Amino acid sequence: MQLSQKTKYFVCGVIVTVILIPLAIKAVDSVPLQFREGDVISAGVINSLLGRINKVQKGFNSVDDLNGTWSCTVYDTSAFGTNTCTSDGPILSSKTGLLTFNSTNKTWSWSGAGSLNDCGSGLKSTGSYDVKAGILVTDIGVYDTRFRGENEFIWFITNSMPPSGFNLCTKVTNPPLPPNNLTYSVSGTSITLTWVDQSTDETGFKVQRKTSAKGTWTDVSTTAANATSYTDNSLAAGPYWYRVLASNSYGDSISSSEVQVTVQ
């Protein structure tokens, strides 16, 4: 049986809904888009979202998963030696710093007070690391790591029983959040796209277009930061597909949903 393009998109949407809703209960932060009735959800968007959720469910697979700079809060229950932390409630002490992983040469560096592990003074601020089966292995300790969203993870020292504390790290070198609620209007041979800007750190938005459902996306324009619309002018008659991505120096966001437009 031959299915129309719209029917195929509807079927994909049903499949995505069935898969994403139960998974999103555990990984809400990994799905930064909201879809509406009638939205065209491309295979690229589906694959990106499923990849993010799969990453949260499975945890670390390689050194690349940690690559970049993370803002980490070190929580410690022992607070022995030279205390570099401040009180954080009746049980914990804490401090913050920046932890950078370089996956190319498998090195880490800590920029913060004292030790990366605890509230002690610590002397080591750089070292080497590897990832094996979701475990972060460094030259100062072995850590059980768990994602709490695509850009946040928590880690426990596994060679301390019971663990004397934990670290909570949020990535600071991220692509921006994607634009949402992409809509369009047509006036003659011009198409105006509008979207909701969800990010605060984009340098611009990439507007991409193709002329068939299975065609190749090409960049039409890159807008300024904080833009929420773009007009594509002087178009020939025919169908067009559009999507928008937010960009910054760390890369592109996942794309918005697509819109299909026909110029008469």
The mean pLDDT is: 82
Structural class by secondary-structure content:
mainly beta
> Radius of gyration in whole Å, from Cα?
23 Å
Number of domains: 2
Strand order of the largest sheet: 1-3-4-5-6-7-8-9
Percent helix range: 10-25%
For the record, the CATH class of the largest domain is Mainly Beta
- Taken from the alpha-carbon principal axes, the silhouette is elongated
Distance between the termini: 30 Å
CATH architecture of the largest domain: Sandwich
CATH topology of the largest domain: Immunoglobulin-like
Largest sheet: 8 strands, antiparallel, barrel
CATH homolog superfamily of the largest domain = Immunoglobulins
- Number of DSSP E strands: 17
Report the sheet-strand fraction. Answer: 35-45%
Run of helices and strands: HHEEEEEEEEEEEEEEEEE
Number of helices: 2
Low-confidence stretches: 5-30
Summarize the structure.
The chain is mostly beta strands and 264 residues long. It has 2 domains: 142 residues, Immunoglobulin-like, CATH 2.60.40.10; 109 residues, Beta Barrel (Lipocalin). The protein is built from 2 helices and 17 strands.
List the topology elements.
Blueprint: H1 5-24, H2 43-58, E1 68-76, E2 86-88, E3 92-102, E4 107-112, E5 126-132, E6 135-138, E7 141-147, E8 152-157, E9 165-171, E10 180-187, E11 190-196, E12 204-210, E13 218-222, E14 229-232, E15 238-248, E16 251-252, E17 259-263
Antiparallel strand pairs: 1-3, 1-9, 2-3, 3-4, 4-5, 5-6, 6-7, 7-8, 8-9, 10-11, 11-14, 12-13, 12-15, 15-16, 15-17
